[in-house]
Amino acid sequence: MARGELQPADRDELSAFIEQHWHSPVIMSRGRSFYPHDEEGFIERRDGQIVGLLTYHVENQEMEILTLNATLEGKGIGSALMLATIEKARSLGCQKIWLTTTNDRLKPIGFYQRIGFRMTSINLGVVDEARKIKPQIPEFGERGVRIQDEIVMELHIKPYIDEAK
Ligand SMILES: CC(C)(COP(=O)(O)OP(=O)(O)OC[C@H]1O[C@@H](n2cnc3c(N)ncnc32)[C@H](O)[C@@H]1OP(=O)(O)O)[C@@H](O)C(=O)NCCC(=O)NCCS
């Protein structure tokens, strides 16, 4: 098992992994396009294979999580990648981590809430609009739920200085 920050040698494999899991190398969030394979992140491998990947983008001292996938679910991989990322955000001086997900992703929404994320807004119909630009976005997701809305989730991070108090 090896977990760590993305290295240049990982990059070649990333776009195939992203495309396999997200139907395209491009991720759309709040109407903006990102290429996660060019961004920073954390990766976990077992026997050389990628079993977990988290990518993020930092701007204005806020970290946006772009993608999170664990190919072996329920084994703590997603949690470990998230915890490493939260520590990274703190070390970069970010006070907020946020992400967008979609209304069908009931399990990840629960997973994020367990970590401490709150749902801060719901952008109705945004996925329907994104699908016009990126037709690969499926119409139905988990348990046949129609994918229509974008949910914004946020985690506020206490800076290191608070720990000394
Ligand atoms: C969401 C996702 C990243 C979670 O990753 P994961 O590795 O399965 O997550 P973990 O194993 O750390 O935690 C999942 C659950 O298993 C439990 N768990 C943690 N360690 C465990 C272990 N060793 N054995 C069994 N269960 C465990 C956790 O309590 C957690 O429960 P919760 O969902 O009720 O909070 C993963 O399910 C995934 O890739 N989903 C598909 C892609 C996706 O939807 N990504 C999010 C986009 S917004």
Annotate the secondary structure layout.
Layout: E1 2-5, H1 11-22, E2 27-29, E3 32-34, E4 40-46, E5 49-59, E6 62-70, H2 77-91, E7 96-102, H3 106-115, E8 118-123, H4 126-133, E9 150-156
Parallel strand pairs: 6-7
Antiparallel strand pairs: 1-4, 2-3, 4-5, 5-6, 7-9, 8-9
The structure holds coenzyme A.
Give an account of the 3D structure.
There is one protein chain. 27% of the residues lie in helices and 35% in strands. It has a 7-stranded mixed β-sheet, with helices on both faces. It has a two-stranded antiparallel sheet with strand order 2-3. The radius of gyration is 16 Å and the shape is globular. Strand 5 (49-59) and strand 6 (62-70) form a beta hairpin. It has 165 residues and is of the alpha+beta class. The protein has one domain (2-164): Gcn5-related N-acetyltransferase (GNAT) (Aminopeptidase). The model has no long low-confidence stretch (mean pLDDT 92). It has helices spanning 11-22, 77-91, 106-115, 126-133; strands spanning 2-5, 27-29, 32-34, 40-46, 49-59, 62-70, 96-102, 118-123, 150-156. The protein is built from 4 helices and 9 strands. Coenzyme A is lined by residues 68-70, 73-79, 101, 105, 107-108, 110-111, 114. Coenzyme A (COA) binds next to strand 6, helix 2 and helix 3.
